[in-house]
Design goal:
With 297 residues, the chain is an alpha+beta fold. The chain is 31% helix and 28% strand. The chain folds into two domains: 157 residues, Ribosomal Protein S5, domain 2; 118 residues, Alpha-Beta Plaits, CATH 3.30.70.890. The strands form two sheets. Strands 1, 2, 3, 4, 5, 6 and 11 form a seven-stranded mixed beta sheet that branches. α1 packs across α2. The two termini are 25 Å apart.
Length: 297
């Protein structure tokens, strides 16, 4: 049985964008927008202070996802559960397809690891814990490892490969004022797709690996999708209309994760041309790809 060796720890976990067009449930990018969580060992129970994104809706008890993930990680190594005081400073928008739940889960696992002195969980063990809580490995892989990740499920558990992103590539985000649940977005997907659609996506996904790592000139062609985005149009027509317009203008625009945020992968150093596409009441920002996943300290 492991013991706690630290009483106060801090984790900063990045936002993530999954799918990236054709890489459904596999590809994800870490983005330099971070939730910050601080934990202190307390006398008993959970004490939560939440500010920033989602602070009006998120719970302040054991059901909070950071608390659940911390508890699950400590349980997995047989640690008697301490009381915890958690301070969450949220920058990742909730319910927008930017990995807010992955950031919370990974924060909890990294907090537990730090409380144990570090090194309690290998990357594979952390990924398995995070995937069990999240239900799929794409966002949590990028949140854990940073940069660009390719995740998959093997018979013995999830695995992920991390690749370096070409230094010229950045991202623009168009974030709407409304949320969309991942469950609703997934519920719109058909149980089967055609061999033609699957073949097209396999080719684009392979091309996207090259585009993101060595050939950014191929980003527009590589981000075309035939498996999931159009099926989700009824739940987020404004999102898909924006994607359609941007792509027609030659931009590598995709739905970020399950939506409704739109992500544009770009090599432009001047975002003004993209900013003009921002719909009323939406927020636009430029953001770097983060080479690091969740960090402690």
């Amino acid at each position: 049985m492991a013991d706690l060796v630290s009483t106060s720890v801090r984790v900063a976990a990045p936002a993530t964008s999954a799918n990236l067009g054709p890489g459904f449930d596999s590809f994800a990018l870490a983005l330099e927008l971070r939730d910050v969580v601080e934990a202190q060992v307390a006398t008993g129970g959970i004490q939560l202070d939440v500010t920033g994104e989602g602070s009006a809706q998120l719970p302040r008890d054991e059901t909070h996802l950071v608390a659940r993930a911390t508890r699950a990680a400590l349980d997995s190594v047989g640690v008697s559960q301490p009381g915890l005081r958690l301070r969450c400073r949220n920058a990742v928008p909730q319910g927008r397809g930017l990995g807010s739940s992955a950031a919370a889960i990974v924060s909890g696992i990294r907090l537990a690891d730090a409380l144990l002195g570090g090194g309690a969980f290998s990357d594979e063990e952390a990924l398995a814990l995070a995937t069990a809580l999240e239900g799929h490995p794409d966002n949590v892989a990028a949140c854990l490892l940073g940069s660009f990740t390719l995740a998959r499920i093997e018979p013995d558990g999830p695995r992920a490969v991390r690749l370096e992103v070409h230094p010229d590539i950045g991202a623009s985000l168009f974030v709407p004022p409304f949320e969309l649940s991942t469950a609703l977005a997934r519920g719109l997907l058909p149980p089967e797709v055609s061999h033609r659609a699957a073949s097209a996506n396999a080719a684009r996904a392979a091309l996207l690996v090259a585009a993101l790592t060595t050939r950014p000139d191929l980003l527009h062609a590589a981000t075309a999708d035939a498996l999931h985005q159009d099926f989700r149009r009824p739940a987020m027509p404004e999102t898909l209309a924006l994607v359609d317009g941007l792509r027609a203008a030659g931009e590598a625009a995709v739905v970020s994760g399950a939506g409704p945020t739109v992500l544009v992968l770009t090599t432009s150093r001047d975002p003004a041309g993209l900013r003009r596409w921002t719909p009323a009441d939406w927020a636009h920002s430029t953001i770097a790809v983060s080479p690091e996943g969740a960090v402690t300290g």
